[in-house]
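A protein record in our archive is deliberately plain, so that people and models can read it alike. The record that follows is passed on verbatim for readers who wish to inspect the format.
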Amino acid sequence: MDTVWIAMIPAILAATWRMATPLIYAAVGEVITERAGVLNIGLEGTMLLGAFTAFAAVYATDNLWVGLLATLLVGVVVGLVFAFFTVTVKANQIIVGVALNLLGLGLTGFLFRTLFLGTKNAVRTVPVLNIPVLSDLPVVGEMLFHQNLMVYGTLLLVPVASFVLYKTAFGLAIRSVGEHPRASDTVGISVSGIRYAAVMIGTALTAIAGAFLTIAHTNQFVEGITSGRGFIALAVVVFGRWSPKGAFWASLLFGVFFALQLRLQAMPDLAIPYQAFQVLPYAATIVVLLSLRGRSHAPSALAIPYEA
């Protein structure tokens, strides 16, 4: 049995980064959104819309770039609508987020059944980059040097997001609007404008997270393909202390549970129902949130509409 577990380690490590990738995109996007003072719990619905858009666009054109561009466009439109209701109309952000989740689930299910049910439900996927020699290294070779391009994209996303947030005037405006919107407004920063921009960046990245599931992780779309990842990404933001780097490492932690439960399900010698393994990532989410109770420090103006 020990030999079996040792043999599983490279596969689990390789799957960890891959399974964490959609969480990284969604969580980093939500970090930017929440640092501007807007709480978007509609990540699940946004991911579903991104997943379906990428699948449909690649199915129609057989072009991955078209799929990604279409996904970004849908993500920006979703952010524009969400920002209109939460920033301009000043509707309750939780209610709007719940509505977005329901819209994503219902609309993608309806469109999939209408347009694709009964068809050949498969598309081309983002190619895997295999680095010779290095990919054959023991233990870490497959994890670090045999992944698809969207997985490697997280290595660019996190430092870029960190640089924008902490080293640019735009990032300073985002953080100031999330902490002290009244003071920001006094010095001439458009609170509404910054929040609109932050929300649209966040939903665009969340839509890309959904696209990963259909054109980089699998080659098809199924209803509810996100399986709660949008809600886990919300927990990742809190666990990562509202920073892109923290979100990256927290996502990898949850990726371990996703990878582990897949491997455990494939072990025939374990006389345990597979459902017990499927619950691992979600149980870990609950444990993490309970452990952080009273110790997290969210942006001061998070989820509070600004009245000029």
Notes: The chain has a mean pLDDT of 90. The radius of gyration is 20 Å.
